[in-house]
Design goal:
Blueprint (H helix, E strand, L loop, with lengths): L1 E3 L7 E3 L20 E7 L8 E5 L13 E7 L6 E3 L5 E4 L8 E10 L6 E11 L48
Parallel strand pairs: 3-9
Antiparallel strand pairs: 1-2, 4-7, 5-8, 6-7, 8-9
């Protein structure tokens, strides 16, 4: 900014002004998919809640405008499911039998003013758990190494772990 006292023979000075631009909440949070379809093995009732699936969203805003909160807004009338409002992990303590089907609507809301939100559907099909196989798993590689950059999006693919083709379903846990 150029400043002058305005008189004849005025002296001028330069003053630096720092301007901080605040983010406007002009983006709503977005789910990568509108419908998530998962098949999970039947399960018995658990004392501790067990994770079922994680639905996540992203928001292109910054600061509080991109702080997200998740809730189940439909399909949970009997209270079988709960969702962690920050991590978006859907869990349950209840039993689920093969052949049953649940459809949940998950809502994500940002912390902006005004708040913006989106929804996605989670379709869960409960299937029969097959008996354990006696055949060993044969992976395509002996070791898998993946590199993740700290600024990668949550939804980015890190790598693919693959098995040689089998005629039976493969059950796995990521630990």
């Amino acid at each position: 900014v150029l400043v002058s006292d305005g008189g004849p023979g005025a002296r001028q000075s330069t003053v630096w002004v720092m301007v901080q631009v605040l983010d406007e909440n002009d983006n709503k949070p977005t789910f990568p998919e509108k419908v998530y379809q998962v098949k999970l093995p039947e399960r018995e009732r658990r004392k501790k809640g067990e994770a079922i699936y994680r639905v996540f969203a992203y928001d292109r805003d910054d600061g509080p405008n991109s702080d997200l909160s998740y809730s189940i807004v439909d399909g949970n009338e009997d209270g079988k499911f709960f969702i962690d409002p920050k991590t978006a992990v859907v869990s349950s303590r209840k039993a689920f039998t093969a052949g049953s089907y649940d459809i949940l609507t998950v809502k994500v809301t940002d912390n902006g003013r005004p708040q913006r939100s989106s929804t996605a559907r989670l379709h869960i099909e409960w299937i029969r758990r097959p008996p354990p196989s006696t055949l060993p798993l044969l992976f395509d590689e002996q070791f898998y190494n993946f590199t993740i950059m700290e600024n990668d999006k949550v939804s980015e693919i890190v790598g693919v772990v693959s098995l040689q083709q089998r005629s039976t379903l493969v059950w796995f846990d990521i630990t």
